[in-house]
Amino acid sequence: MYSERQERIVDIVLKRGPITGKEIAEILGVTRGALRTDFSVLTKDKVIASKTKIGYSYLGNGTPTGKKLGRKQVSDYMSMPNILQEETTVYESIVSIFLKDTGSIYVTKNGVLSGVVSRKDLLKHMMGGTDSRNSPIGMIMTRMPNVIFCYRDESIHSAAEKMVEHEIDSLPVVSEIEDGKYKVVGKISKTTITKIFVEEFKG
């Protein structure tokens, strides 16, 4: 389900829309920036829509299954992430990724998400003949801000859209420490989302 604040935003837009993000923020007593994730979730799920110089309007679109998935949050289904430090060697990363049977490793520096390494990245590195026992994964990872991620309170539908759009198998689930810096708190994968879809269609 959506968070309490997101439900309040929908209620405000439904009753007062079209209404600007600034006006919604003033009603809720927070800054416009604090609502960025909430607006992103609700617009991606097509519950509300934003038009320049007009503001947010209520849509409430979607199929029955789409609406159910729109109310399921990432936090309810995320799993434990495979996290390593930038200094970890490629060899150690290969051992970790296969022992934990995962497709990606999330890389951190001082507790902050700094990059991601996939099985494909590790394979390319090995095929290049570079010494895997001395090469740190920080050299081959995809670095921030090019890492695609999601938040705990995003919908499953939103996470699935990101994976399809960027052709990736999983997303790190993050919480924002400060502007532009994120802590990894979980992982959501295509396998997990496929299981959710199967269960929904069974129902």
- The level-1 CATH class of the largest domain: Alpha Beta
Low-confidence stretches: none
Q: How many alpha or pi helices?
A: 8
Helix content: 25-40%
The largest sheet is:
4 strands, mixed
Mean pLDDT: 88
* Protein structure class: alpha/beta
What order do the helices and strands follow?
Answer: HHHEEHEHEEHEEHEEH
CATH topology of the largest domain: CBS-domain
Describe this entry's structure for a reader:
InterPro entries: CBS_dom, CBS_dom_sf, CBS_domain-containing, HTH_11, UCP026546_HTH-CBS, WH-like_DNA-bd_sf, WH_DNA-bd_sf. Residues 141-203 form the CBS domain. With 203 residues, the chain is α/β, with parallel strands linked by helices. The chain has 2 domains: 4-61, Arc Repressor Mutant, subunit A (Orthogonal Bundle), CATH 1.10.10; 76-202, CBS-domain, CATH 3.10.580. The chain contains 8 helices and 9 strands. It has helices at residues 4-16, 21-28, 36-44, 64-71, 90-99, 119-127, 156-166, 190-202; strands spanning 48-51, 55-58, 83-85, 104-109, 112-118, 142-143, 150-151, 170-178, 181-189. The chain has a 4-stranded mixed sheet with strand order 3-4-5-6. A 3-stranded mixed sheet has the order 7-8-9.
